[in-house]
## 1
Amino acid sequence: MQIIIRGHHLSITPAIEHSIRSKLQQMTQHLDQINSMQIKLSKDHQIDKRSKKGSANHIAEAIIRLPGIELFAQASADDMYSSIKQMLEKIKRQLQRHRAMQNHYPSLAIE
């Protein structure tokens, strides 16, 4: 399984990369069908005029490719760790739904 982590307008620290990789490994250890995963972390430099701070300007996106299906999740928050956590929760729900659908309809599962 290939995991690509990219940063847009920010640098990826080893702590962030390790955190993402370990959580994705735990989440997908029972799914051997995953072809690739792409994680994009970005920072929007828009400034809120009232508070002089960026509001929800740290964005985390994930694309997970399985045979015949592609899962996408995006989350934004005031800090990067929160947006990563929200994005991983969304991906986890999608993977659970995908597993349930495969177990419920085994004839529709793509091999």
## 2
Amino acid sequence: MPVCDNCKKKWTWRETVFSKLMLSSKAACPYCGEKQYASAKTRKRGGFMVLSVIIPMFVVLLFNFSMLFYIVFGMIIFMVVMGLSPFYYELSSKEEPLW
């Protein structure tokens, strides 16, 4: 779980997921209120996590499964990725360049 770079308190799984769902690169720490940014390492990992959702979907299309299977399979992969993502999330007190 991520740790605030300012107050060093560990965020809960729920706080991390909700901060990610806001689709912003910054979030206020629920404990000290300071703005926290996703680290460059976390943003790079996020790109690979998106690929882990997209690539299996192409495999499903290759085997010509039904649309219902495609949707259910996609939802399951998405939920697994979203459920695991807070465990690799790291915070920074300043916005870091991606490269």
## 3
Amino acid sequence: MIDSKLISLHGGHSGQFCCHAQDSLEDLIKAYISKGFKAVGISEHMPPPGDRFLYPDELKQGLSVKDLDNRFSRYFLELERLRQKYKSDIRIFKGFETETVTGSPARVRSLIREFNPDYIVGSIHHLKDRCFDYSRQDYEAIAADFNGLDAMYMAYFDTQYEMILDLHPFVVGHFDLIRIYDPDFEARLDKPEISKRIRRNLSVIKDLGLVLDYNLRPLAKGKKRPYLTPVILARAKNLGIPVVPGDDAHSKEQAGMFVDRAIQSLKDMGFPTNWPRPWCMTPA
């Protein structure tokens, strides 16, 4: 278990290693320390398996996959430097966040062999190799290609299920991210075919001993609810699945933001707050 009252296992995106973030990674670590964190997991985005999966902000900066590969190598070197520099103040767990596009499972395994992370965060940002959470316009266009949001949700949870079985990520990132631009998500998550998939995915998370990300990024954007919704949280609680806060910080100001509130919410719901220690269990 991790001996720290405060924790985030999904976050630490910095402008140094992520185009849509701000500040240096060291500034983020110093912010965690100043806010009383004794442990934190840093999980920068993995480089994509091909140039066609570059994000618009990366294309705008003229970056290639090779550039991102080099930046990712620098990320792990810097993370190890910071781990040693601040080891008397904070325990840093080295990780990265996955993608789920054509070629990514093999890429994830290759990165694990090369960099030996403490853990990975398994996330879904793409459906049919198209990113759905970058903008509302993209989200709605992909939904139209699925002939509606119901089918898009089902595809999301099916993709997530396959990713969980394939990679066994210690942290399953923002489990219900698919609702990001859907004002009617509460009713949709309760629809039988979608609800069935949610229960199936939670069951395999429990069976594999994985952790759910209580992702606080929506709160930093002014939204009312983190990922996970109360219904999903209740199901996780009934199954005994550990739920761990993730600030999904993209700047030093966001480092640790809302974590104390999230932990109190988890306590109020009856979740344990003896945080499990990360490990990397992706099959070879």
